[in-house]
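Bug #77: duplicate submission created two jobs. Keeping one. Sequence:
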Amino acid sequence: MMNRKALLGVFKKHITDEIVVSSYSTASDWIEIADRPLNYFSHGAMGLCSSHGLGLALARPERKVVVLDGDGSLLMNLGTLVTLAAAAPRNFLHFVLQNGTYEANGGHPIVNQKVDFCGIARASGFSEVHGFEDLGAFDAALPRLLTSDGPAFVRLLIEQGPLGPRSYDEMYRPERREALRQELAKGR
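Kept job's structure:
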């Protein structure tokens, strides 16, 4: 199992001009580790991180879109996997950080701790599916994943993070959305 902050440190090392979409606990840690204009935070959208990422991937096919989703969040919108596989955007990478809890809501356990997210992704139509629980192996694989064609689904087994109160106000400032819009406008 991996520590989320250490895992996000690996992402930071390899992320360049990709759009990174995240929400809740992962977004809170990601902003602390990699505050950048190309971050998109799904406000009040538990379960919709991958849907927001799909919209960005379809609208901006020239940019990779990296979705940092949670297992509880994905379970709230599991049908998105079928939609993602059908749309098949080549620039889409869906990373699911699996800790077995609805961490943002107090760490309540997800209903079935034995959910096979990789199996569900394959059955939904993803041809590239991976699972990692070792940080070194993931660090070695991430550069190839970021340059390969998607859509790809990657399950990352992580430890539960701190359950203390988190403030999401910083990530939802209007200035952040404007910075993202300006950064994306540069590419047009």
